[in-house]
Amino acid sequence: MSETSAINGTGIGFIGGGNMAEAILKGMIAGGTAAKSILVSEPLEPRRQQLASVYGVGTTADNGEVARSCSTVILAVKPQQAATVCSALEGELLGKHLLVSIMAGVSCNTLEGFFSEPVRVVRVMPNTPALVLCAATAIARGRNATDVDLAKVEAIFTLVGSCCRVDEKLMDAVTGLSGSGPAYVLTFIEALADGGVKNGLPRETALNLALQTVMGTAKLLAETGEHPGSLRDKVTSPGGTTIAGLHALEKGSFRATVMNAVEAATARSKELGK
Q: Which residues face 59 on adjacent strands?
């Protein structure tokens, strides 16, 4: 079964028309999904008009219309809105529906608890590079979701980047690593550029060099399949400039700080789910 045929056939609806919803539908359309099979519920009229104009998708202000029209519903709202949005859909979302949630910290069990009928739930954690079809996404199934459901969701999110399956107990760690990870990488790029500026480089030149260094290194790592430490050793000459810089990173507890950031974000994801 091709990715497109796995997705097409029934309507796919979005509740919430923000940036992540736009990234996902953009990838779906680029992958061959018919725009007319997509319906987006969004409270802001200017945003509805924008999505309809740019992508040719259907739009509505009524979340219930999405449930009535689409067998697959993607929840793309803030975690704090989960109870309000789902409670309003009681009686609309039924056993025939596949509910896909991209809300951080909200468990499948929590979502299933909002409905009197068993609802098939798949929880997803994409990240913001989905906006350029380069996301890192993880998915986990709820108790009622089938293998076919999981394959369908995997097919959708493969269109916006890479997608892997994990046990749901690991989704908070996924959130802490790849969900929040783009912010860590952006901070590193900014700091790398600042280091260049401090040492005399023009701001634009420093930022361009920092950006290309991160992009190129990530591509090198992906294409060689080598361990990061092995590739690092190849550019670390005895007594050279790189080992001097690495020593400074170690004195600043660079790796421990990054690990602490992932741990803190993971803990926050768990808090959001309570």
A: 40
Cα separation, 12 vs 115, whole angstroms:
20
> pTM here?
0.86
Sign for the CA dihedral angle at 177, 182, 123, 146 comes to: negative
Q: Which of 203, 142, 204, 136 is nearest to 169 (CA)?
A: 142
Q: Can you give the CATH number for the domain in which 74 is found?
A: 3.40.50.720
Tell me how far the alpha carbon of residue 155 is from its chain's centroid: 14
| Residues 136 and 18 placed together within one structural domain of the fold | yes
Residues 244, 246: Cα–Cα separation, whole Å:
6
* Termini Cα distance of the chain: 38
Same domain assignment for residues 76 and 201: no
For residue 260, give its domain range.
Answer: 181-272
Which tens digit of pLDDT belongs to each residue from 28-49?
898 888 999 999 999 999 999 9
Q: How many domains does the chain have?
A: 2
Order of strands across the sheet that contains 120-125: 58-60, 38-41, 12-15, 72-75, 98-101, 120-125, 135-141, 161-165
Tell me the β-bridge partners of 15: 41, 75
Write the DSSP assignment of 232-269 as a string of letters: HHHT--TTSHHHHHHHHHHHTTHHHHHHHHHHHHHHHH
Indicate the pLDDT class of residue 272, thresholds 50, 70 and 90: confident
Which of these, 21, 40, 7, 182, lies nearest to 103 by C-alpha position? Answer: 21
Q: Helices (DSSP H) in the chain: which residue ranges?
A: 3-7, 19-30, 45-55, 63-69, 82-88, 108-112, 147-158, 171-174, 181-198, 203-224, 228-234, 241-251, 254-272
Asked if residue 217 and residue 121 are part of one domain, the reply reads no
Q: Decide which of 135, 154, 173 is a domain's last residue.
A: 173
CB-CB contact of 105 with 269 (8 Å):
yes
